[in-house]
Batch of 3 targets.
Target 1
Amino acid sequence: MSALRTLYPAIEPYETGMLDVGDGHVLYYERVGTRGAKPAVFLHGGPGGGISPDHRRLFDPARYDVLLFDQRGCGKSTPHASLEANTTWHLVADIERLRETLGIDRWLVFGGSWGSTLALAYAQSYPQRVSELVLRGVYTVSQAELDWYYQFGVSEMFPEKWARFQAPVPEAERGNMMAAYRKLLTAADRDQQIEAARAWSVWEAETITLLPDPDISAKHDEGHFALAFARIENHYFTHRGWLEDGQLLRDARKLAGIPGVIVHGRYDMPCPVRYAYALHQAWPDADFHLIEGAGHAWSEPGILDQLIAATDRFAANAQQ
């Protein structure tokens, strides 16, 4: 058996900038790789997670020209943790504005977790602008998926972690954890917001990998990161992503003719595999890789291997 692929060497952006997209929001973006090479856009998770230097390393810098950006309200984008004018459709418009600003005709769209949701929403809105799709940890923001992760389901797998997630919420309000956290995360008391944000964020950090990863947990426990992550994620999920239930699977027909790769861990807790499988059934142009012995995180070895195999393959195809 061949060795698993690993991240490309660390590389610094050749360009960074701030783009005013209106509504009071300014987005941080960076470009890495080789100017003029195969264009790609990376869509981070969360919502509210922001980009990291390691995300740049999912692409061969000699063969790709990659745009990465912090979505509204998170990372280096401003204003931090803002919920105003911050919806799925604002983000779809932001992606298209970035494409137009950079003068790109079509690009590979890469998204994991919430990034897969956003990638699907964008590709179904602008299929003519998408050359390929690479999706990891598919999430369609259905009510069933939200209930599984934030009300009953994953709670049965991690009872001690679920107890910590419930702790900031009064017992009488635990019948609707999403609504209870909404109240805490939008409270006037900033300290109360941060306490709730850390609990929300750590619940995710401690349940996304097959085995515990202290580095992920430490990042999600940091107050500045957690505040944007939890506030924006709860905001989006409270509104079910401003999507009709089942919309992204229903509209998968709009992806016809777009080559794609779907990578999903068998034991992905936040994103049950049945939805990735359903997407594959509805979009047969996509290859489907179900990774045994893996959870949700892109950094788990089997998942990472298939993601880099996908970006390598599409780069090779572009050079033929």
Target 2
Amino acid sequence: MSTRPPEFGLFLIPEADNYRQLTELSAYADGSGLDLIGIQDHPYQRRFLDTWTLITALAARTTRVSFFPDVANLPLRDPAILAKSVASLDIVSDGRIHLGLGAGAFWDAVAGMGGPRRTGGEAVRALAEAIAVIRAMWSDERSVRVPGVFYSLAGAHPGPRPRHRPGIWVGAKGPRMLELTGRLADGWVPSAAWAPPELLAEAGRRIDDAAAAADRDPLEVRRVYNVSGTITADGADHGFLEGPPERWVDDLLALHRDQRIDGFVFWPTDGEPVEQIRRYTEQVVPAVRAAAGA
């Protein structure tokens, strides 16, 4: 069982033609007591808004829900500037920003926008260097130096500091990325699309082992799970995350209990998305909160 009470949120797709609905869903999440909104970051998608610009606009329209890129595309976002963006928005939003961070994917698209094309090993090393740069840019030091092959600082002046301590949550799947997460990150962001419960268990052990080897408490590393599926209205139960609200309550409680998942970010994959989000928010979330609290 996680030592944290579970938090709940929505996974939003930053489609430029859908901006009005994105603002409405964010306002609904804010007013309905949800905790998180994650927004994917694929700058090379021509139909997508820029994720940081969208998060800024939505944060300005809300008062309590927290936001994070799910996850930021590091190869197209310089980490020193990214750190400044996170800190700035955290101040503006009164401490409601976290940083989901990914090593990169879709390398043809990244290279098409002028970004680097990295091997798997290079991507992992670059991410480790980026985390060091970001933490240095959030420090109290007057001047910082961070050596690195991919990212470095040479006498940079940090600041401003974030309002609160934003979590650096890594989207990790492979063994080297999972080890990095346990060693350096504040959280892990897997997705149900590629991380079913049996994979969660194995990956969670890798993260815990890496954290312990780095003299960290494994419980410090949050686990925020992107849950995709359909909440049915007719009682049909098709298995994991595909069934009525009762099925979802049982699945999420089991994930919280057995896999220490303490954040659930919902991405409806079938049916009318607004109705799916209402079922999740109004039927699933209160029942899981009540049962987890009990």
Target 3
Amino acid sequence: MALRLPPRTRLGNDMRFQLDPATAAFRDEVGAHLRKVLTPETEERIYRSGVAHDDDFAKGLVGEHYFAPDWPEEFGGQNRNAWDAQVLKEQMMRFDAPVYLSETTRMVASIIHQVGTPTMKDRILAGAMRGDITIALGFTEPECGSDVAAAATKAVREGDDWVINGSKMFTTNGHIADYIFLLARTNPDKPKHKGLTMFLVPCSAEGFAAQAVWTLSGERTNITFYSDVRIGDEWRIGEVDGGWQVLGLSLQDEHASGWGPHLARLLYHAEQWAATPSEPGGATPIETQDVRRRISRVAMELEVSMLLQRRCVWMVEEGQVPVAEGPMSKVFSTEALERASQDIVELVGPDALRSYLEPTAPENGRFDHTLRFALGTTIYAGTSEVQRTIIAQRGLGLPR
């Protein structure tokens, strides 16, 4: 029996995802800003630190109203639509801008805006939108991997307070953030999805600690520890034991991520390399059929990646939720990036493994860095296995 997607995912033959002139102009405006502020010195400092955040850069986004353009003006936004927000994300990826902490802050701020108490909204939202407050994510645990619902970090109620004990893995930027958006188990007697609660834990709280963990790409992430961390109930987000529903608001956003712009950057550098003679007056690599074939394959996978992501944006604009379409975008684009980076490194040869900041490295070492970076993207925001499970169960209606 043939499997069919739900009718809402089938697009008419005349459906297109070209940008309208206003959105294209906004994209170019953002690109001009990034070219101006992401100087070689800034890029080198970020690369050497391994930290995808820069306070001055983030404040610059706020100043230009690029931090959350689709938010209301009262929060520093521009009331822009989902397409404008999408091209902003694409440009940030395309330029490899240090925005991860800004993105997680904005994501949690959106959740607080939806389900937070008035007190928490007053305390967090304005500062987060000004770039004065930063929030990192505390979901994954050392023994749980992608099974976020198996969290063992405990939060025990003591009067009006909660006492938290446990640890979280891959808490990227947890060493510089102001808060951790933390998933904790509050009822061990309930099924694992139903005994969880979300908290916003101040990193200044006694008993909190962050320890560096370095990834293959040179990025610093963290394991964070919570040793009798005591916080008031005002730091709880959502209902007690209702954390899975709150978490779902963030996971849906993460699962709908697209990584096509990283492919676009790789394609650009591959084309630049292919158009440059290996020696003065010599032939260029692009004249070789195999080079053209491999670069064309990257271009085709980039096109598919961008279309899958833009389908998600179109669905949001139409009032639909890209439950399965988001994971489709994520799993295809990250696996395409992994395939393409390996293929281009093989094409360029041993010189492609010269690292960033190495003077003799082709294209300033972007091939080496993209290869190492790509290997982690199939894990970020849910592994490919998790994404395929969502597609199978919630998109195709297959049994568990």
